[in-house]
Design brief:
By secondary structure, this protein is mainly α. It is 84% helix and 0% strand. It has a domain at 41-96.
Length: 96
Amino acid sequence: METKKNRWLIALAGVGIHISIGSVYAWSVFTTPLQESIGWSLSQVSFTFSIAILFLGLSAAFMGHFVEAKGPRKSGLVSTVFFALGMITAGFGIQL
């Protein structure tokens, strides 16, 4: 018996992945709070954004091979774990 894939679930997963990718562009929302709460200059906040964009590009470059080898489900799970760890680490770093 064939299993039928839920197309809506696949579409929602794709939208979720693209929202995660695009979340780095919400950085402008964080710029002023980081400057006010931590006392960073605009160049320091911009440097942090540059690091985030660097890792976004590197992950796209390296995960492309992973997707081909392991498939989109495993790569999506790995990406989700790294995204969550990055957000948690960033929040913890701000609290320190």
